[in-house]
């Protein structure tokens, strides 16, 4: 996408058609993929529980990835909450006993394995779990299962059964034993089907064995025999429940897991502990996901129902599309009529003197029409169960190889800058671009689990906020424009997409934490400089004392930041008042907002202070910004460059040696500015470096905000917890296609936001104030609908 933009960058019209062609191609890909996935779910079924129980693959050695969905890793507390007042029964042989112990350890890790019959009850959560020793499918097992169907007492909520290896062993693998197994399971199947009407019933197929490790007394247990027993069980259970809504769920995924791990078995028969734990976690996901609804557990979760606000948004976008089509058809007909007018005397065609202008209403509806189609794609990707999702899995190669590839591309597309000032527009776009690309790779690769990478990414996020402080301070200091129009333009561009996503995706504002962060810091910068006395460059040039006045303002700001950072109670009180609480609460409290704010609390101040010092030096001509000239004298430049390189490397060494995330996060707010300033000086002191920029990175930098927000739902999945899968089975090709669509969508949203900003935010103050009142009314109505929705849920 960026290459397309670059090839046409020399001429505007070629750029336009290149990007437009890419977007048309992306639209075609979306329509084709949507049709393919819809058809697949229509004919192959879209039950993710079936996939969870029957298919998947290993990511690495121990991470199991079900086909098409994400598996949540349940904590002890979550497992207890799910199974409260539940009775869980495991019935079968020693393999089922091992699975039983792995399952109950999810609730109580302190349980020790002992005996063939176990009854465990957790008094705190009233979870009752039993293991019943029935190593063969025979009359005794049938009688036990029948007793549950005939009992008037409460039946078990979950029943996990399975057996076969003992029958093979005791009867020396005879065919008569297989025939008797078929007869017995045929008599048990109707009873299990009856229990399945009120309980979750799972039949565990037999895992393969590692024949070379089997003891002499187990040599008759071969994989060929196990396959025959499994085939018989599947055929009988499926035929029994074919005409019934209640179905016994066949747990066949254990076979796939065992095929990869049975070589690590201690006796060739029983699975290693890690494999048993995986099977237990799958069972937990099958039963608990529909109850607990974890964000990163898409398997077995139904599609969430549309909320009232989502329905209203759908109606609004539908009406916008219809309205735009009607108006465009009317304009097209008028244009054709005017074009077909001919001069009856000369017989020549008359050309209209003035082409029909596009009305503001048509532009508005056109923007909402495109936005509605894009939001439909967002919803299909991350709310509807149409496209597949997978868990992240980190490897060093999945993070560092794409980084190197992008670095090469960035260096390849290098151009001269139009201006050679420190942190000029092209340079800041480049900076934002490569940082955003690194952050995207960080998210999709799951690199947050690797602490050194996490600490460096924290610096990139801080650098964005540093630019916020630098950019907005520079604008207000130089322009002295504190008008409402400027504030509304910035707030609209920052928040428009997030507000729409909050409505369409049913997520709180704080969920998209970076936008609230930059919005609040923008308002802090504005308030700091706008309150009396307003000190700007023009005023300060007349009297140097104004510089001390501004420094006093910055010191006051730093004092407030310091106070709030060490007073969580005061911070939470400020942001717990309505309507701020509606914006900054997540999961019923503002702790997440407190954590995000505190993590980079000083860096915006550092950006403002850097801008003040730089602009003061620039005004007094103490720095040289000519093309190819070093920023300072050669001696000073070399010394500063050496200190910057050492500081940059020293921070990287410290970040790479971090052992505890909490401790490193505590130091981060104070030390992150070291690497940021070091980078700024390295990038700007040498004149030849300052005079060049990467157009590849700069192109992405212009849409960095849209890229950061859109990744939540149309590149990643499950609210960034997983990865969107458009093309299953081909991970690399899937990433390429989803990335192409994702970048095209982000670019289009950026254009839509810019177009709407010109329409929605007028320069006339009286009109702007009226629209602000309308916006206030809109959000009041939104709050009312949200309150009604919460009441209906409860």
Automatic annotation (TrEMBL):
Q: How does it sit in the membrane?
A: Multi-pass membrane protein
Pfam hit, one? Cas1_AcylT
Q: Which residues form the Cas1p 10 TM acyl transferase domain?
A: 292-772
Name the Gene Ontology molecular function terms of this record. N-acetylneuraminate 9-O-acetyltransferase activity
Please give the InterPro entries that the UniProt record associates with this protein: Cas1_AcylTrans_dom, NXPE4_C
- Do the record's keywords include Membrane? yes
| Catalysed reactions listed for this entry | CMP-N-acetyl-beta-neuraminate + acetyl-CoA = CMP-N-acetyl-9-O-acetyl-beta-neuraminate + CoA; a ganglioside GD3 (d18:1(4E)) + acetyl-CoA = a ganglioside Ac-O-7-GD3(d18:1(4E)) + CoA; CMP-N-acetyl-beta-neuraminate + acetyl-CoA = CMP-N-acetyl-7-O-acetyl-beta-neuraminate + CoA
Domain NXPE C-terminal: start-end pairs: 64-115
* Single GO BP term: carbohydrate metabolic process
Q: What is this protein called?
A: N-acetylneuraminate (7)9-O-acetyltransferase
Q: Which organism is it from?
A: Strigops habroptila
Recorded name of the encoding gene = CASD1
């Amino acid at each position: 996408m960026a290459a397309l933009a670059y090839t046409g960058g020399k001429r505007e019209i070629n750029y336009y058609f290149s990007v437009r062609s890419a977007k048309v191609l992306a639209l075609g890909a979306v329509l084709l993929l949507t049709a393919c996935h819809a058809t697949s779910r229509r004919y192959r079924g879209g039950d993710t529980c079936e996939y969870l129980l029957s298919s998947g693959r290993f990511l690495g050695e121990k991470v199991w990835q079900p086909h098409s969905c994400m598996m949540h890793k349940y904590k002890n507390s979550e497992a207890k909450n799910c199974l409260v007042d539940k009775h869980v029964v495991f019935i079968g042989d020693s393999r089922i006993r091992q699975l039983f112990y792995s399952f109950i350890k999810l609730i109580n890790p302190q349980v020790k394995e002992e005996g063939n019959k176990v009854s465990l009850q957790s008094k705190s959560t009233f979870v009752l779990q039993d293991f019943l020793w029935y190593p063969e499918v025979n009359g005794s097992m049938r009688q036990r299962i029948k007793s549950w169907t005939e009992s008037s007492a409460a039946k078990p909520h979950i029943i996990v059964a399975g057996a076969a290896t003992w029958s093979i062993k005791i009867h020396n693998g005879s065919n008569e034993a297989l025939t008797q197994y078929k007869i017995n399971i045929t008599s048990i199947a109707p009873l299990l089907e009856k229990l399945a009407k009120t309980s979750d019933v799972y039949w565990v197929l037999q895992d393969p064995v590692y024949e070379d490790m089997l003891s002499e007394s187990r040599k008759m247990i071969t994989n060929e025999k196990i396959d025959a027993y499994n085939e018989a069980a599947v055929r009988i259970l499926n035929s029994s429940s074919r005409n019934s809504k209640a179905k016994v769920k066949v747990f066949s995924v254990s076979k796939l897991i065992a095929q990869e791990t049975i070589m690590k078995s201690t006796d060739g028969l029983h699975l290693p502990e890690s494999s048993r734990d995986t099977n237990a976690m799958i069972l937990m996901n099958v039963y608990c996901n529909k109850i607990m609804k974890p964000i990163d557990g898409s398997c077995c979760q139904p599609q969430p129902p549309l909320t009232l606000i989502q329905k209203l948004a759908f109606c609004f976008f539908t009406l916008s599309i219809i309205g735009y089509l009607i108006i465009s058809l009317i304009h097209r007909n008028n244009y054709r009529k005017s074009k077909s007018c001919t001069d009856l005397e000369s017989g020549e065609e008359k050309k209209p003197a003035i082409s029909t202008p596009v009305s503001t209403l048509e532009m508005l509806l056109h923007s909402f029409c495109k936005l509605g189609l894009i939001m439909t794609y967002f919803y299909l990707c991350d709310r509807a169960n149409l496209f597949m999702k997978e868990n992240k899995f980190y490897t060093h190669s999945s993070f560092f190889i794409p980084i190197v590839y992008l670095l090469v591309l960035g260096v390849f597309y290098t151009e001269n800058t139009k201006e050679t000032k420190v942190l000029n527009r092209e340079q800041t776009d480049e900076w934002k671009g490569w940082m955003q690309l690194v952050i995207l790779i960080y998210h999709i690769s799951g690199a947050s689990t690797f602490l050194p990478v996490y600490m460096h990414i924290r610096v990139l996020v801080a650098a964005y906020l540093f630019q916020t402080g630098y950019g907005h301070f520079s604008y207000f200091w130089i322009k002295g424009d504190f008008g409402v129009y400027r504030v509304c333009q910035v707030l609209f561009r920052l928040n428009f997409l997030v507000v729409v996503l909050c409505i369409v995706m049913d997520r709180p504002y704080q969920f998209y934490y970076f936008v609230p962060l930059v919005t609040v810091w923008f308002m802090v910068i504005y308030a700091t400089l706008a309150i009396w006395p307003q000190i700007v460059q023009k005023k300060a040039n007349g009297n140097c004392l104004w510089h001390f006045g501004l420094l006093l303002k910055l010191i006051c700001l730093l004092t407030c930041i310091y106070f709030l950072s060490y007073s969580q109670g005061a911070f939470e009180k400020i942001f717990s008042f309505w309507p701020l609480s509606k914006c900054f609460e997540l999961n019923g409290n503002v702790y997440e907002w407190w954590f995000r704010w505190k993590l980079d609390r000083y860096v915006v101040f550092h950006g403002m202070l850097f801008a003040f010092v730089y602009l003061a030096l620039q005004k007094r001509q103490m720095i040289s910004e000519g093309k190819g000239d070093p920023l300072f004298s050669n001696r000073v430049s070399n010394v500063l460059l050496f200190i910057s390189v050492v500081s940059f490397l020293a921070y990287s060494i410290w970040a790479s040696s971090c052992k505890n995330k909490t401790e490193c996060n505590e130091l981060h707010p104070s030390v992150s500015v070291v690497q940021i300033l070091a980078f700024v000086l390295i990038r700007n002191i040498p004149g030849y470096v300052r005079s060049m920029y990467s157009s590849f990175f700069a192109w992405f930098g212009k849409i960095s905000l849209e890229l950061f927000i859109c990744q939540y739902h149309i590149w990643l999945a499950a609210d960034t917890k997983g990865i969107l899968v458009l093309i299953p089975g081909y991970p690399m090709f899937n990433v390429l296609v989803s990335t192409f669509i994702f970048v095209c969508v982000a670019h289009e949203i950026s254009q839509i936001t810019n177009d709407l900003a010109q329409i929605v935010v007028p320069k006339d103050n009286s009109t702007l104030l009226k629209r602000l009142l309308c916006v206030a009314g809109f959000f009041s109505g939104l709050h009312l609908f949200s309150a009604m929705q919460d009441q209906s849920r409860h």
